[in-house]
Prior knowledge:
Helices cover about 5% and strands about 65% of the residues. By secondary structure, it is mainly beta. The chain is elongated.
Amino acid sequence: MKKYILMIAMLLFSVGAKAQIGMSSSYSPDTKWVFGGTAGAGFLGGDSFSLYASPTVGYKLHENLIGGLNGSLSYRSSKDFKSTIWGAGPFLRYYFARSFYVSANYTHYFFSQDEYNERVNRNEGSLNIGGGYLQRLGGNAYLQIGATYNVLYKKGTSILGSPFVPYVGVIFGL
């Protein structure tokens, strides 16, 4: 039972925190560039570790529309297994009613895995559609709660674990 509780707790922790950081604490509505990203880490048992980072650079195309590029890097290791997934691609995010947003992004992933002295290399595209809710924390900081769904996900053959990705985080600079 303790093993299942630990696995659930670590899974929830490994979902990660999402943080988008604006230009600086002296953000101005005239600033067009947005910088940010996501990060997470997970530990599953004594010999399994994962680390994730996803930087974002965006440009305000309109008052409520941001377009830009996402990057992604994921590393996992255990006693007999190591994998690295990295990718990049464009995104669009539209904010409405100052509390909600919809988003779409395409990321092309490159996967490399070493298991029992064998190397596997693959690549795969991901088209994520999603949205979420913003709650103002103060100044130009917001709590962001959202989820995306990969419409290109192929069960059983995908290098990605799930088509559904929930996230919680903080965003600065809107």
